[in-house]
Amino acid sequence: MKKTFLKIVTASFGILIASSFLILNSCEKEKNTVAPNLSKLTHEAVVIEPALQNAPITEILTVSNIRKYTDGTQRVSFNKNEEIFAVADASILSELQKAYSENKKLKVTFDPWKAIVTKVSVLSPAELQENSVKKIQNTSGIVFYINKEIDKEKLDNSLKLGIINTSTPGLTNVVPDMATAQLMFNYLTKQCCALSGPYGVDHCISYQYAEDGCYARAHKMCYVLNNKYHYSTHKIFSFANAGSDVLSVQAQKWGGCCINWWYHVAPLVNVNTPTGVKAFVFDPAMFDQPVLLSVWLHAQENPVCASWGTANVSMINIQPTTSYSPADGTGFVFDTDPLYSDTNSTLVAYSNLVSCP
């Protein structure tokens, strides 16, 4: 039996947020009596090896933005990947700026634990051919620009957010109570790659690696919520895409390091409460229970971890479950992953990694 937890330290913004722990007390898999065996899915096969802890990672990426932050440094973000990277080498920065202006893909090598780009190179003809397929994209969504005066009650109210009156065949829109929501959350938590299993899904979920992979975790969690428990979901995307804004959290259990993102995503679920239907976020990488949307957002505004930027959520975009990751730096266009090929590849790649080595 393993026991592990991730504490997110949050700042006080006029809202009391308790210290949050991801606590896993059992590796025992729950019995699935309401749905097919999710551990044997028919999605595209995964042919990728897990990444190695402390080793550099190389991916084919497009640049979402290059911005100057409050400390004067220029940092780069990439579509799909949520982490923000520093670029110390002038020649690398020049290549990234060129690729950004031309909207071209690059082979990028980076150190996720130091949050730096170490190498870039152009794609070979074979790689260009392999990555030339245009992805299906979503553009619809419910957008809110966040400021200090925003009505917290509106953020947490499913009806005011406009997400309660949606209908998907075979799925129920509202979870009846918090006990049911917690039951589902606990099942998702038990799929963590930091545990020995057995797992109830085809690939364990890499909650223990907070630097990246939220898009894959969210996609797999939504699949489970939709297909095992038959409840509808949305995706909630938070963005730090204005000025020198940055999303900032501190992973205490994994060494206390600061992690900075330009966006983050998790499943958004309607839950019935004594005060009405509320919008709850399922994010086992940050919490040990479903939390209100406002709590989830403020947990990403830790100023202690934003020494080179401003800890602030600029914007949120509530997307359909099919949206996977940002397709550009605006926060309005999203790639999809209908065959779960990128989802599963990402979960496998990150299965052995942990934050703050």
Structural write-up:
The chain has 357 residues and is α+β, with helices and mostly antiparallel strands. The chain folds into two domains: 57-130, OB fold (Dihydrolipoamide Acetyltransferase, E2P), CATH 2.40.50; 137-349, C8orf32 fold (Roll). Helices cover 19% and strands 25% of the residues. Strand 3 and strand 4 form a beta hairpin. Helix 6 (214-227) crosses helix 8 (341-349). It starts with 56 loop residues before the first strand and ends in an 8-residue tail after the last helix.
**Distance from first to last alpha carbon:** 22 Å
Q: Given the C-alpha coordinates, what overall shape results?
A: globular
Based on CA atoms alone, the radius of gyration comes out at 19 Å
Largest sheet: 7 strands, mixed
Got a strand count? 19
Strand content: 25-35%
Q: Using the 3D structure, state the CATH architecture of the largest domain.
A: Roll
Helix content: 10-25%
Give the domain tally.
Answer: 2
Topology of helices and strands:
Elements (H helix, E strand, L loop, with lengths): L56 E5 L1 E6 L5 E5 L5 E3 L3 H13 L3 E6 L4 E6 L3 H6 L6 E2 L3 E4 L6 H5 L1 H4 L12 E2 L2 H12 L24 H14 L6 E6 L5 E7 L5 E5 L1 E11 L2 E6 L9 E2 H6 L11 E2 L3 E6 L2 E4 L7 E3 L4 H9 L8
Parallel strand pairs: 9-13, 11-16
Antiparallel strand pairs: 1-5, 2-3, 3-4, 5-6, 7-19, 8-17, 10-13, 10-17, 11-12, 13-14, 14-15, 18-19
Helix pairs in contact: 6-8
Essential attributes:
OB fold (Dihydrolipoamide Acetyltransferase, E2P), seven-stranded mixed β-sheet, 19% helix, 25% strand, 2 domains, alpha+beta, C8orf32 fold, three-stranded antiparallel β-sheet, 357 residues
